[in-house]
Amino acid sequence: MTMTTTRTVLAAAVLLLVASALTGCATVAGTANAPRVGLLLPDSVTSRYEAADKPYFEAKLHALNPRATVLYANADGDAGKQLQQAESMLTQGVNVLVLDPYDSAAAASIVTEATAKHVPVISYDRLIAGGGAQYYISFDNERVGELQAKALVDKLKSDGVPAGSGILMVNGSPTDNNAKLFKQGAHKIIDPSGYTVLGEFDAPGWEPSKAQDWVSGQVTKFGARITGVYAANDAVAGGAIAALKAAGMTTVPPVTGQDAELAGIQRILAGSQYMTVYKTIKPEAEKAAEIALRLAKGEKPKGDTVVDGVQSTLLVPVAVTADTIQSTIVKDGFYAAAQICTSAYRAACAVAGVK
Ligand code: GAL
Q1: 122: phi then psi, degrees, rounded to nearest 5
Q2: Which atom of ligand 1 is nearest to the CA of 176?
Q3: Which CATH architecture has domain 141-280+318-352?
């Protein structure tokens, strides 16, 4: 080998080494800069998940890091399906999971599997049992129940409905930790109110049809003794109202709700639903996106509070009746007035000052 050839071979070897070291670096840096984030939502019975949580989350994540990717799955009200979806995301190498559990207890095994792979989990909107998540983002859910029940009791009192009159309670899914908290908050107000709970039902999967069937049975049983309905969200409120109308009740008693669903807001304007609870989903989803990226970087973000040993952020829910639709939901741009005030609701919008 001549001197020149030796030099050339050496130079080539050095170049190769440098190049592979560089590519190595690039690959490591690439994973850190382009995190894969798994978003798991519970159902499509309630409109918020597809209409608000998912788009707000994705938009914020991409705004904060254009190289981040979202793997998305909706469990369609099936805990087994949610477990499979999470496992598939873990196999695909997600760096963090944002999990709104369909079943708060069953989801503990998702956390166990994620933890074994060193993948942090955000408990999104609903608390996962067992306390293994790295962060919990939600609303003050007991307060949601209090707001609903207080609005109902105040309305009955201001309408002069006498003490001892009857209320039905249509609660949320028995597998949802939030539903338990809404119910607790509601009972705090209803139990000492002087009104009587005629019957109470936990609607499986928050299904409107299940709420409707149960309320139909109660109408047959109690008829005009039903003077108010506590419904834990707009989906089950819709089912309850359908049952009351189908039974031909001349005046539909006040019915509560939650989520400020478009259909719920329109029922409030039309007078068949009394109130809803507006939860600002945008900041909730955006906070989740921000925390997800920090966890993916290996940071340990601190919350404003601690729930069940988990760093947490709890946002504030707001009660909304016809007269406050404009100053809350429309003002925030949650819906444009044009979305709410379609031809059937134009007159009601004018009365309520929605514009
Ligand atoms: C709750 C959630 C509500 C509502 C409900 C039905 O956990 O906080 O906003 O969507 O589930 O899915």
Answers
A1: -100, 130
A2: 7
A3: 3-Layer(aba) Sandwich (3.40)
Tokens coding 125: 């909107």
Please give the single-letter amino acid code of residue 66: P
**Cα separation, 129 vs 308, whole angstroms:** 9
- pLDDT number for residue 7: 54
Residue owning the nearest CA to atom 9 of ligand 1? 259
Q: Which atom of ligand 1 is nearest to the CA of 177?
A: 7
CA distance 160 to 138: 36
Q: Which two tokens stand for residue 117?
A: 């792979």
pLDDT at 31: 57
CA separation (Å) from 98 to 38, 123, 134, 316? 6, 6, 10, 21
Indicate whether residue 125 lines ligand 1 (CB < 6 A).
yes
At the top level of CATH, the class of 29-139+282-314 is alpha beta
Task: Please identify, by atom number, the ligand 1 atom nearest to the C-alpha of residue 138.
Answer: 8
Spans of the chain below 50 pLDDT: 1-6, 9-10, 12-30
